[in-house]
Design brief:
Length: 254
């Protein structure tokens, strides 16, 4: 083989080695890019799962705003259907129907402000009382809330029900729905809750509270009644149009 042919052969061999090296390097880069893409996809999925759980925070429940309700009520004492310091001088009673869409609006826009400004501070406590005026589905819903209250989760139940409310009188208030709300509300003993909500005493309480609303002359939901040192007994507020109206009533009653 001539010197020229030898040089060309070595050059060709070198080019082949370099080409193979470049192909191997390219393959490694593609693998790295692919691995990074897979890792990024896994991270994105994990973030979405965390975000979704933080929005619901209700385990396997499909309910919305579970975490929101828990955050609003966290740290505030509950007894029965009363939320706030039991020794608070002022008591604000809300007469509502859990199927009422106006009550839902108050639960989302008005009541949280009052809870944050007046109830959490201990200036007032707020009670939920049933005023079942829409249809027969309102009665088991109210009974379920009272039963949740027996385990210190009454207001969680009420607020969570409102935030997942269906179309009134549409048949959505089923045992399955009520149980899901109870679980989302954190009721610890579902078996006892089921027993209580179906009991005669709890059903009688629903009727007694509805009768009280009618005796007070209330005609719609939500309606508010306040008692305090300066009210001279129960004072009917009706349905104030804002949180400020309720806050002012609490201050005047103190």
């Amino acid at each position: 083989m001539s010197g020229k042919s030898s040089r060309e052969a070595r050059r060709e061999e070198r080019l082949q080695v370099e080409s193979a090296g470049k192909q191997e390097e390219r393959r490694k880069r593609l693998l790295q890019i692919g691995s990074a893409a897979v890792f990024l996809a896994v991270v994105i999925v994990a973030v979405l799962i965390v975000v979704n759980q933080s929005e619901s925070d209700g385990g396997d429940t499909s309910l919305e705003n579970v975490a929101t309700v828990r955050g609003e009520l966290r740290g505030i004492p509950q007894k029965g259907m009363a939320l706030g310091d039991p020794s608070a001088k002022v008591t604000l009673a809300e007469f509502g129907d859990l199927q009422c869409p106006v009550c839902k609006g108050f639960a989302e826009e008005v009541i949280p402000e009052v809870i944050d400004s007046k109830v959490r501070s201990g200036e007032a406590k707020i009670e939920f009382r049933s005023f079942t005026i829409i249809n027969e589905e309102s009665v088991p819903a109210a009974a379920a809330a009272i039963a949740a209250g027996k385990q210190g989760r009454g207001w969680n139940f009420v607020e969570l029900f409102y935030r997942n409310q269906g179309i009134e009188a549409s048949g959505y208030v089923t045992d399955e729905f009520l149980t899901e709300v109870a679980r989302g509300a954190g009721v610890p003993n579902i078996a006892q809750w089921n027993k209580d909500r179906k009991s005669t005493s709890v059903r009688d309480q629903v009727q007694t509270e509805t009768d009280e609303a009618e005796t007070l002359g209330l005609s719609g939901t939500p309606s508010f009644v306040i008692t305090g040192p300066n009210t001279g007994g129960k004072e009917v507020l009706g349905t104030p149009g804002s949180a400020e109206g309720l806050e002012e009533a609490i201050e005047a009653a103190s």
